[in-house]
Write a structure and sequence with these properties.
Shape of chain B: globular
Largest interface: A-B, 57 and 69 residues
Radius of gyration of chain B: 20 Å
Helix content of chain B: 25-40%
Radius of gyration of chain A: 21 Å
Strand content of chain B: 15-25%
Number of helices of chain A: 2
Order of helices and strands of chain B: HHHHEEEEHEE
Number of helices of chain B: 5
Largest sheet of chain A: 9 strands, antiparallel
Strand order of the largest sheet of chain B: 1-6-3
Number of strands of chain A: 21
Order of helices and strands of chain A: EEEEEEEEEEEEEEEEEEEEHEH
Structural class of chain B: alpha+beta
Largest sheet of chain B: 3 strands, antiparallel
Strand content of chain A: 35-45%
Oligomer: heterodimer
Chain lengths: 288, 190
């Protein structure tokens, strides 16, 4: 009875008693999907050795492959209206999110806000959002190249040589310009981004995207500065949106999911230009 | 043309690999931001002129005035801080116009979110139709951002539909005296 859900007739998101997303229902299916914020600790290296450099502006190099939890239970508030239903989540003092579904949209929006990332403990942090689902993707996921062709990726694999990854996490990260997706025989899950990010699928059914980083050491590739941006004396705050689309997979010969992804991609990357005009001196009739 | 050229040159600089990936030095990052800001403001005057031509009934290409031509000129300003739910015009004006230009080659619709300081607004389109609206609070985590200097506590949401391809639509938004209730979250919040 404590489960909370928001949505419309096309898509419905359910949140568990801890305040986390737990399932998504579409017209065709219900799938277990959860989402959480995690972080990798940036490696501190010895920049004189090529194989032991710090994580920095050029390279993502976590100290270990283990991710750290941000919180075990976000505080949530649910707002419902005629046009949109929203869940406002507060994960901690520096991570919050609004999850929303508009009445006519077949996808969900995740508007995250991260920062200023605390560094009082002297540890650089690289924050990710991770979506875990029960889709049996078997190590395969898809990332785009400049918003055009989707490229097939297989975890711990390179197409043209036999690879042995010494850095399991970083070695599986790929540039995501606008989309990352995975699927099995029945279902397909895609996340669209509003900006280029790094991303991966570190487990079957799982998609993750790096949304903010604050690091304390230079990686010795040339910039000669640590990636530790500040404004007004504090670390930067980043705000952005992910769009989640769940539907039938292409293996199911149904193009509907990818059509929705493509149209949503266009509308989000080329949104309307907004112009504001003060109309204090113009009545509605004058303006008309 | 000088405005457009400045923007073109800036976009040329933005294609340097350090600008694309963010591996530039911090002071260079500041300079990129400054250039983009100047370029956007410069081209803002171009878009303002074009939109004033279009809305006055004059065809910009031919300059032939329409019989319905009028003399109203509007500012058509962009709000750079919409990404932190802040816009000086919408949060301080009792009446303002929002113009949406659709850059897509197909008709589209969009749920528009406008930052406002109070609850009581109505939105009308050009056919004198009052649109359905919703007001939701801007999360406190955003309102409390240190450098966010904004009166906006809410976002006014409405559906802008049938936006024509490569075309625009305007909406008249005004405060009313009708009292609207504060948005209340569900009772089953955790």
């Amino acid at each position: 009875s404590s489960f909370v859900s928001i949505g419309n007739e096309k898509i419905r998101l359910t949140f568990d008693t801890n305040g986390f997303l737990s399932a998504i229902t579409t017209k065709e299916m219900t799938r277990i999907v959860n989402q959480e914020f995690l972080y990798y600790e940036g490696a501190i290296g010895n920049n004189r050795e090529f194989r032991n450099r710090s994580s920095g502006a050029y390279i993502f190099r976590p100290k270990t492959d283990n991710v750290k939890l941000v919180t075990t239970g976000p505080k949530i508030k649910v707002y419902r209206g005629n046009l949109v239903e929203e869940v406002h989540q507060i994960f901690n003092e520096w991570i919050s999110q609004v999850v929303r579904v508009y009445r006519k949209h077949g996808y969900a929006e995740f508007e995250w806000m991260v920062g200023p990332i605390p560094i009082d403990d002297g540890v650089g942090k690289e924050i990710i959002t991770r979506f875990n689902s029960d889709i049996q993707s078997e190590g395969i996921f898809y990332t785009d190249s400049n918003g055009r062709e989707m490229l097939k990726r297989l975890r711990d694999h390179r197409d043209t040589w036999r690879v042995k990854l010494l850095e399991h996490t970083a070695g599986n990260y790929y540039p995501i310009t606008t989309k990352i997706a995975l699927e099995d025989e029945n279902a397909r899950l895609a996340i669209l981004t509003d900006r280029a990010q790094g991303g991966s699928s570190m487990g079957d059914g799982s998609l993750e995207l790096m949304i903010h980083r604050r690091l304390l050491h230079d990686d010795a590739f040339g910039v000669d500065e640590s990636l530790n941006e500040t404004a007004f004396g504090q670390g930067l705050v980043a705000r952005g949106t992910h769009y989640l689309i769940l539907g039938n997979s292409q293996l199911d010969q149904s193009p509907t999911t990818q059509l929705l992804e493509r149209f949503t991609q266009l509308e989000k990357l080329l949104p309307t230009w907004k112009f504001f005009s003060d109309a204090t001196n113009s009545s509605y009739d004058d303006w008309r | 043309l000088p405005h457009l050229s400045f923007f073109r040159e800036t976009m040329g600089i933005m294609q340097h690999h350090d600008a694309v990936t963010g591996t530039e030095k911090q002071k260079v990052a500041y300079d990129y931001a400054r250039r983009l800001n100047v370029a956007l403001r410069a081209c803002g005057s171009n878009t303002k002129d074009i939109l004033n031509h279009l809305t006055s009934g004059e065809t910009p290409q031919t300059g032939i005035p329409d019989t319905k031509k009028h003399d109203y000129k509007f500012e058509f300003k962009t709000c750079d801080l919409l990404n932190i739910s802040s816009c000086l015009i919408s949060e301080t004006s009792d009446r303002f116009i929002l113009t949406l230009y659709n850059p897509l080659a197909h008709s589209t619709f969009e749920y528009v979110r406008v930052p406002v300081s109070t609850l009581d607004y109505i939105v009308k389109d050009y056919r004198d139709v009052t649109l359905e609206t919703e007001i939701l609070p801007i999360p406190e985590t955003i309102q409390n951002i240190t450098f966010r200097n904004s009166r906006a506590k809410y976002e006014l949401i409405f559906l802008a539909s049938e936006l024509p391809p490569f075309g625009y639509k305007s909406y008249y938004i005004m405060k009313t005296n009708k009292h609207r209730l504060e948005p209340i979250p569900d009772a089953d919040n955790l």
